[in-house]
Amino acid sequence: MLSTEEQRQKNREKSRRWREANPERVAEIGRAYRARNCEAVNARKRRWEQQNEEHFRAHRAEYYRKYYEANGAKKREAAKKARIDDPAKHLLHGARVRAKKGGYPCTISLADVAIPDVCPVLGIPLRRNVGRIGPSDNSPTLDKIVPSLGYVPGNVAVISHRANSIKRDASIEEVELVLNWLKRTRYTITENTAGSYESRPPRAEAAE
Length: 208
Known about the structure:
- By secondary structure, the protein is mostly helical.
- The chain has 8 helices and 4 strands, in the order αααααββααββα.
- The protein folds into 3 domains: about 1-45, no CATH class; about 70-170, Herpes Virus-1 (2-Layer Sandwich), CATH 3.30.40; about 170-208, no CATH class.
- About 60% of the residues lie in helices and about 10% in strands.
- Strands 1-2 form a two-stranded antiparallel ribbon. It has a two-stranded antiparallel sheet with strand order 3-4.
- It is elongated.
- The N and C termini lie far apart (about 115 Å).
- Residues about 190-195 and about 205-208 have low confidence and may be disordered.
C-alpha cells in the first residue's frame, strides 16, 4: 500500500501527463476559472507582484527584451503601417502615452483629433513622414494649447512639428519676449566670430 506522500506524488504525475496531453482543455478551464473569479485572481496577482517586486520587474524586463528581439521588426512594421493608414489614431495613442508618463489628463477621443491639410500656425502643408526616421517640419503633431491643462477637449490642435517645436511649453509672454528680442537684435556671422550679435533698436525707434 502506498504512503500518503507516494500517493500524492503519483497523483501529481498523473495530473501532469494529463495537462501535457490536453493543452487546449487546460487553457479552456483556465479561462473559465479566471472569468468566474476575475477580481480574486487580479487581487492575488497584485499581492504577489507587491511582495515580489524586484523579481517581478526583472522577469517583466526579461520577457519584453526577448519579445522585442523576436518581434521587433514586425512591431516596427505594424507601427509604420498604423501611422500611414490612420495618422489621427496614431497621434491619439501618442498623446495617451505621454499623458500617462507625464501625469496629466488625457480625455480626448478620436473625434477631437482632426488633421487639416495645412498647419493653422505656419500655413505650411501637413504631410505624413513616410520612409524617414523621426518627424519632419511638415509632420502633423498634436499640441496642447495650454500645456498645463493636458489633452482635454477644446485644448488640442493638430499643428506642424515645426510650429510645435517653436511653441513647446512657452507662455504667450515668453513668445512675445522672444519676438521682441529678435526684432531688436541682428545677428552678424563673420569668419572670425560666428554667432556674435549686435543689438539694434526697433525700426520705429531708429526712424525717429
